[in-house]
Amino acid sequence: MESLQKTSDAGQMFDVVVIGGGISGLSAAKLLAEHEVNVLVLEARERVGGRTYTVRNEHVDYVDVGGAYVGPTQNRILRLSKQLGLETYKVNVNERLVHYVKGKTYPFRGAFPPVWNPIAYLDYNNLWRTMDNMGKEIPADAPWEAPHAVEWDKMTMKDLIEKICWTKTARQFASLFVNINVTSEPHEVSALWFLWYVKQCGGTTRIFSITNGGQERKFVGGSGQVSERIMQLLGDRVKLRSPVTYVDQSSENITVETLNRELYECRYVISAIPPTLTAKIHFRPELPSERNQLIQRLPMGAVIKCMMYYKEAFWKKKDYCGCMIIEDEEAPISITLDDTKPDGSLPAIMGFILARKADRLAKVHKDIRKRKICELYAKVLGSQEALHPVHYEEKNWCQEQYSGGCYTAYFPPGIMTQYGRVIRQPVGRIYFAGTETATQWSGYMEGAVEAGERAAREVLNALGKLSAKDIWIQEPEAENKK
Fold this sequence. Notes:
With 482 residues, the chain is of the alpha/beta class. Helices cover 30% and strands 20% of the residues. It has 14 helices and 19 strands. The strands form 4 sheets. Strands 1, 2, 9, 10, 11, 12, 13 and 19 form an 8-stranded mixed β-sheet that branches. A 7-stranded mixed β-sheet has the order 7-6-15-16-17-14-18, sandwiched between helices. A hairpin with a 2-residue loop joins strand 6 (96-101) and strand 7 (104-108). It comes from Bos taurus (Bovine). GO terms for molecular function: monoamine oxidase activity; primary methylamine oxidase activity.
């Protein structure tokens, strides 16, 4: 192909080209570089990090407007971040959490809001127990092989919730649980996929909890540093503003072309982008039919992440920690967490606008979103101070053409059993990373590291530098911090 070669790298031969400079692609590249493999990362944006993004300005110091939370059992991201010199701190849950439902605020402690109605209580308990027990039947690395895979994959989570729950109380909370965890609606997602998703995060309590759960900690300085520090290690082996448009593996070497008409030659490719975004790439020869169909069938979730900053953490005066679980159709935000810095400076509340509400609220002006959120916080926390923020930051991930949405791709009914098995099957000399291809904490930064390192080991095996039995390895447990 004709090429206007602008960089010295273009036309150079690499062992591996990694498509995507998020945590997954950079984890892959880091591991390959450590094995003295000549690797190049091509990133579409003018920054690394993908679905993680740490914004820095005078109002916020730093803020994670994308993926931020880590917790126990997320051993790979904890090991990697420690190796990169990053520290974590605990999200504040010293005071009471609140549950806002039917127009009233109920303070509580622990992972889940308590239920006082005895019938509803039984219904809740049965819901979590049933979901966890169904999850136990689903293999984390092959959910399509579960004994009831076909049956469960035909159902949406809405169907399953209606089947399990007798009370409206439990049904509504179950629906919120889906919104919060996978930024999509119960009627949109396969029951098989959602049950698998919760299971591979360690179950209903682990996925939803702050203390001892997926939301326990954040990185001091922000999660964007994970990718930024790997980029520093790799130096000129990471190319920004280089969206890949063409991958040709019809000859002895693979040719990779970018939007700015630069050509790179390599022996192997690792695709570390959301499955649906591979549809932006032209392949020669064309992808196998199953893969081609799969990538058209995995939509991304929808979320707007919103940070409201205040002069002081007024919620603590009421013995509230800043975590709110909000069940209200009119409320823009469904869940919040305290986002104050670990030293107590820059008090803030982080809130998610999820799924259907993200679509609805994306249509209005930023100032209207800000006002609606403040009014909600004032109502839920019973404090007029919520109406007077000193700063507001938000990120609508639905409008990001190089993410497609957040947190992760979801499987609509019928897709997992029909096409799921090809998610990480190599296509010729192309291997697949990205958090969607993980088997533990898929959808999280942890899953991104698992997938990136696994894809790197697949390539190392293909290069003859690693035996096949070493592709999948158990990660030792990270040392627990205070």
